[in-house]
Amino acid sequence: MKKQFDAKRLVPGYGLVKDIREHKVSYLMMLPFLALFTFFVIMPVGTAIFYSFTYYNIIEPPTFIGLDNFRHLLLDDEVFLIAVQNTLFFALITGPISYIMSFMFAWLVNELPSKVRAVATLLFFAPSLVGSAVTFIWIYIFGGDAYSVINGFLLRTGIIQEPILFLADPRLTMPSIIVAQLWMALGTGFLVFIAGLQGVDRSLYEAGAMDGIRNRFQELWFITLPSMKSQLLFSAVLQVSAAFAAGAISRDLIGFPSPLYSTHTIILHMEDYGRLRFEMGYASAITVVLFLFTLGVNHVVRKSLGERHDEEGAE
Amino acid sequence: MKKLLLSALVLSMLLSIFPAAPLRAAAVDAGQAPPRAGSQISDFDLFRSQEGYALYMATHDFTMRPQVEIPINLQAVTQDDAAEITFTDEALYWTNDRGVLYWHFTVAEAGVYQIELDYRSIGTSGTPIERDLLINGRIPFTEARALVLPLFWVRSHPNIRQDNQGNDIRPAHREEQRMLTARLEAHSGFFTDPLGIFLEAGEHTIGFGGVREPMAIYGLRLVPFKELPTHAQVAAARGSVPHATGEIMIRGIDATAISDQTLHPHSDFRNSYTLPFELGARRLNFIGGFNWRNVGQWIEWEFYAPEAGLYQMMMRTRQNALLGIPVAREISINGQIPFAEAAHVVIPYSTRWQITTPQINDDEPMLFYLQQGYNTIRMRNILGDFGEVMRNVQEASMALSSLYSRIIMVTGVVPDPFRDYLLTNRIVGLVDTLEETAALLREQIATLEAMAGGSVPEAHTLNLMAVQLDSLAADPESIPQRLGNFKDNIDMVGAWVMRVTQQPVDINYIMFAPAGTPAPRANPGFFTRMWTAIRSFFLTFTMDFTSIGDVFEEGEAISVWVAMGNEWATSLKTLIDNEFTPRTGIPVNLNIITEADALLFSVASGRPPDVAIGGMPLVDFGLRGAMVDLTQFPDFDEVAKRFLPVHFDGLGYGSEIFGLPDMQSMPVMLYRRDILDEIGIEPPDVWDDLHRIIPLLQERNLTVAMGATYDLFLIQNGGWFFNENNTRVAIDSPAGIDAFTRFTQWYTHYGLPEFFDLYNRFRTGEMPIAITDFSFINMLYVAAPEIRGRWGIQVIPGTVREDGSIDRTVLAGSGGIGMFNASERQEDAWEFLKWFTEADTQIAFGRTLQAILGDGARYNSANLEAMRGMGWPTEVIHVLEESWENAVVRPFVPGAYYMDRHLMNARREVISLGELPRQALLRYVDRINAEITRKRAELGLEVYQP
Fold it and tell me: Which alpha helices (H) appear in A157-273, and where do they start and end?
């Protein structure tokens, strides 16, 4: 796709306009996406950045206060540090496990005959579809009532005497939501993996067999994984973004605020200020920090998974 | 091998947890909460067979039925002090619902008599009259407790009116207090005949104990059993009567009288054969629905018959609530059940609308004689033949409950799975009881199937129980391990009876036609249905579903946003269109908001509504300049008198007040009278009493449902939440720390549960004492009818002061309705606020809600006068009035949400992490104060200076 050198491009004001005119069909086709992207990504991010430098209580017009929000956030706000800690902890546990689980299940499902595969895919994917709609099931399972599933069982078998407060004891809330989160782990990433596995060129396996691949793991390592780099990357980016944006599950399961902030994440911290305390400026500052954070981690992930492959891919 | 066995055991127990466990979400749905299985306590069986009417019938000679009537002389009444009565020429007025009245009478011929009562409702609340029946000074059987005497309701306007969008407005009903005659019958509906009382020859007394509502008594008689002639006998006696030639059509929605104001018309917007039908508009087109589910409820239609003669009857009905179970209605024409068969007309189960023709022997239509001119037809909800099945199932469930309690006396509630308890030796007739009960249940399933003429999916629960019983009987050693599951199944059978006795039916029309007229088609064909569906899909793009009732141009009306359910909003809008707009000339647009943030965003965008009801942080908005300070209106003080003055503490800040209270909350203490009586304790009056009672309850595996008591301890202890000028919290005062310590001791010392399902545990009696909001009793009335009359309500316990007096301060609260600064029609909005909160409006609103949604939606208005006139039971009002005198409300303080949050954190540190209460609390006080200071500074208020 390398461009031929074109002397006219050196003429000022000529290049871009000419380019657009020349490729107007391509630009036209990009337009819907660009419009949506601008409206739903660039503008909100821009707005958030703007508000993060202001005091804005939603009701009265914002006033510019410079870096005050950031100073308070990074230097004075101890709860924010707890939130960062929790978010990282949550992300480090659920992120990799979900990622690996998604891949393993996709690999397994891919081995099934195609009709069974469709059903199995749906079954595995279903939890992330229903997601928070079935939180009450988890409340019922983990509930602190003596008749909730786990406590009921443990009490009946005589293992414990008093119900364990899975959703209230600050030492147990984080593990509880991690379990619930993992149940929903097989999400979009899982689907992407299945698609990726389907897309691997069959002839490579034959060639591999000729070249001395001896077992399925070698096949996986030397052929499957390298041919799916773009899917691996895409899925990883999704996973990272999702892990950092976690919070809803804590609010649904543990309640808001969580006891001793034990499952307080950055997103929840943002909502705390934005909705409860009417400090939208400060909440915006939190989102800006989270945004930069996610961007940074995604960058690291892309680097480590080898971005050059991606550029050659269609994405 | 042992390992394998053990793991199999664990697995079977794991599995045993699941089947009997309906999900929690279902229980949230207030109106129809299914009782959850899993209660442990069987000491307090919900139904006690030894006192029931079935046993009474079995132990008395019910074949003796003397054909004489014994009138009672009402004038010769004996009363106790609590009952208030006066006489008029024709009736005895019992003007309260307390105390006891009774009369002496003489029986000449021994035998069974029924009781007939002429009565009239004289109350204003619109709730049915309830009385206990007393024979010779005592309640003869459980069914005689809290007998319900239905009322007579008629439509306020005969025609159904429409709003300016062309939607039907649900008609209102009013009670017509006419004299009614009723034979006393069991509320359960398990018995086909009215209740019979066996009386030996000689002197007796008959009397009533007051339960709910005043009443006037016009006549009281002991009467013989009635035998209805059969259809064939009636036909023979009638001789030759001409058959009618024309058809008469009666629309279900044109019911002229109902027993219960909840029996209002509904709309079916899917089936185009349900006439009147119109796409894109709400047409009320059938009557009945889920509201017509209880035994004894009736609907009556008056209609004109152009010619006298014999007619066959055809109804377009729908009965899809109970899978596979046919339900029954009793039909009377012109006040009489014409023949025995009409007392039990079966409407089979069907997922779709159907034409039901009442028949004899499945082939011959019943013929009804109608006179020329006006006739009435009444359909009453009965269980009929079904009642016996229900009774047998209930009996089975009671037998099993008692067996269960005998088993746990040996094994305990949590048996050792590895021990052989030799149950067959220790419990006499164990295996026999199991087998007999299984056989009894199977018989009932067979009867049900015979009645339905096919399989009955709804009977699955019974089958499950029977299978388990057989397997327990085959292997009695496994009983201890399967005990929990056994109990769950017993509870499920009990719950099944409660659920299946609720038998709703929808009626679209009733048609009287000459005998032999073929049934009209009940449902549209495939293509018609498809076409209707397609058109209604496209209508979803053009119809506005959030606006309710009359809709006006934006500029000329005030807009009101409500965070309410659809039924609530519709009721409110109807009231506005009928009352407010005609009176003041101010049109109102009403919109439902479902997102809590909608108001916030509307304020942010500068286009808020004029008025919002519920769902917003009023004072937060107000302090930031979004709400109107209502004290600026000259008549504010006048309006404020409608409420408890303290309610305004939570609705404003400083001298500004941003809202009027709409609904109120108030903690009360509920207790199970029957259980406390049985243990022999009085309901606690002060906290110290409760401390003494808890161990007594715990000995019996019972416990207490403790609501938020920290606040109560704090304020009854002379403490307060904040310092004088609300610049910092005062919970670190000695009183505050003491209150917190005592509060956490409920959990650390007394081991009370922190999380529980109050409704289920109170119902089963496991939590016979509960501190909770008074509105919880609505749920008890609706969803726990079996403990009706067995629970009491009381002011929350007080604290004994040093001088011996009792501090009964309670913490009340209220929601608010306010108007926005951005409104351009503030005067009109203020008119609306005043109108909405006035007593008449609140009562009318509450009544409408109750009419549409039943007792569960009884409204807890903040308007004190409205509260008294709204039909809350008198005992509740007494408790509320006493509480109002001592009520305080937590003032709004910016940043105080941090106090709630950190009180919760401190509580967790103490209960979960074992921290000392004082240290846990003090750790957070500084943070709370810092937040309050920060918020006050942000809002430009004075901050704390140490």
Answer: 173-183, 188-199, 202-211, 216-219, 225-227, 229-244, 248-253, 266-271
Residues of B with CB under 8 A from a CB of A: 10, 13-14, 17-18, 21, 23-25, 36, 38, 414, 416-417, 484, 597, 600, 603-604, 620-621, 624-626, 751, 753-757, 897, 901, 904-905, 908-909, 911-913, 935, 938
Alpha helices for chain A (secondary structure H)? 15-22, 24-37, 43-51, 68-71, 78-110, 114-130, 135-142, 149-156, 173-183, 188-199, 202-211, 216-219, 225-227, 229-244, 248-253, 266-271, 280-305, 307-312
Q: Which residues on chain A place their C-beta less than 8 Å from a C-beta of chain B?
A: 55, 57-60, 136-137, 139-140, 143-147, 149, 152-153, 155-158, 162-163, 165, 168-171, 257, 259-261, 275-279
Contact criterion met (CB < 8 Å) for A170 and B38: no
ipTM greater than 0.85:
no
Which residue of B23, B626, B897 is in closest CB contact with A276? B897
Kindly report the pTM of this predicted structure: 0.73
Cβ-Cβ contacts under 8 Å, A162 against chain B: 751
Instruction: Please choose, from the candidates B935, B930, B909, the residue with its C-alpha nearest in 3D space to the C-alpha of residue A261.
Output: B909
**SS3 (DSSP) at B153:** strand
B402 pLDDT band, cuts 50/70/90, is confident
- Chain A CB contacts of B913 under 8 Å are 170-171
CB atoms A277 and B935 under 8 Å = yes
Question: Contacts of residue A137 in chain B, CB cutoff 8 Å?
Answer: 23
Question: Among B14, B604, B935, whose Cβ lies nearest the Cβ of A58?
Answer: B604
Chain A residues inside the 8 Å CB shell of B755 = 143-145, 163, 165, 168
Q: Can you tell me the distance from the alpha carbon of B618 to that of B785, in angstroms, rounded to the nearest whole number?
A: 38
Q: How confident is the model at residue B18, as a pLDDT? A: 38
Distance in angstroms (rounded) separating the CA atoms of residues B901 and B120 = 54
Provide the pLDDT confidence category of residue B289 given band limits of 50, 70 and 90: confident
By C-alpha distance, the chain A residue nearest B627 is: A59
Return the pLDDT at B670: 93
Identify whether the C-beta of residue B297 lies closer than 8 Å to the C-beta of residue B378: no
Query: Is residue B805 over pLDDT 50?
Result: yes
Q: What pLDDT sits at residue B80?
A: 85
pLDDT value at B376 more than 90:
yes
Instruction: State the Cα–Cα distance between residues A290 and A163, nearest whole angstrom.
Output: 37
Give first-to-last CA distance, chain A, whole Å: 15
Q: Are B301 and B376 in contact (CB under 8 A)?
A: yes
Question: Which whole number is the average pLDDT over B538-546?
Answer: 77
Residues B755, A276: C-beta atoms closer than 8 Å: no
- Average pLDDT (A261-272) is 89
Query: What's the whole-number mean pLDDT along residues B367-389?
Result: 89
Q: Helix (H, G, I), strand (E, B), or coil: what is residue B102?
A: strand
Tell me the three-class secondary structure of B18-42, residue by residue: CCCCCCHHHHHCHHHCCCCCCCCCC
Whether the pLDDT of residue B770 is over 80: the answer is yes
> Higher-confidence residue: A119 or B169?
A119
Tokens matching residue A257: 């605020």
